[in-house]
Amino acid sequence: MVQKKNAFKTQGRPRSEDLEPIVLKVTYEMLAKKGYYGFSLDEIVATTGIAKTTIYRRWPNKAKLAMSSVSHLISPFLEFPTNEPFNKALISQMESLSNLFNGKFGKVIATLIGAGQQDQELSESVLKEYLLPRRLAAKGFFENAIKTKQIKSLSDEEIEVCMDILYGTLYFRLLLKHKKPIFSDLKPWLELFLETLKK
Q1: 139 vs 157: CA distance, rounded Å
Q2: DSSP 38
Q3: Which of 9, 47, 85, 160 is deepest in the core (most CB within 10 A)?
Q4: Residue 125 and residue 35: Cα distance in Å, rounded?
């Protein structure tokens, strides 16, 4: 019987920290190609040569694996610039997100959000692994701008609404697909809104 060659298989027993990026990268690629319901853990095992028990030990279900792959590969590109004023840094971060939405990541995250409407386990993972960490980072960014007097004082609820107004423009276009989330189309209006937050 001829064994299938696999580029991910290695000699000996690799360390767990070496396995994680391999599994996450393969998962992400399968999400982009097949969608959430189109891939299985058996395919991950077949592609990577990593035992299913090892995968389950790190990620207890398919939903957590899918969202971990998104966080692992995308989060570094969504950080807020630390050496720019509030308005410029926020616009820069939103432009990075828009660029991601117009590529492979847009297809992946739209698939996961859509599938989560019918899958409670996935919905909870989208919330805990992706949305809440991103909103927490954005909230901290707003709070620092208030502290450094770059914008006027805002309550927690007002910050939440500001985030909905700003980022909602991108997600609305990503999910409903009536128009592409092209940042140049939205930038002038987002900048106008940010002007209203100045002291």
Answers
A1: 10
A2: G
A3: 47
A4: 16
